[in-house]
Specification:
By secondary structure, this protein is mainly α. The protein has six helices and no strands. The longest helix is centred in the middle third of the chain and has 13 residues.
Length: about 80
Amino acid sequence: MREGVERAARTLEIPERRVCRAVGQARSTQRYKATKPDTDRPLVEAMLALARELPRYGYRRIHSMLKEDGFRVGRDQVHRLCRLH
């Protein structure tokens, strides 16, 4: 929706405020930038260290090793982070 409001304001040459009012969208949501806290950083660092040390291990075995090291983490989260990093 954000791109649509920006595009409409540019092409119609009307202010963003008027476009948001016409669409029924609050201007605060138009300018909102989401920020995610970096709470996974210690987990990712441990996961990457294990992956560098044992490159043949997949996310399932890395998950079990992380649990042995004391991390409270689910297998799906480890899989998501492995794909991401």
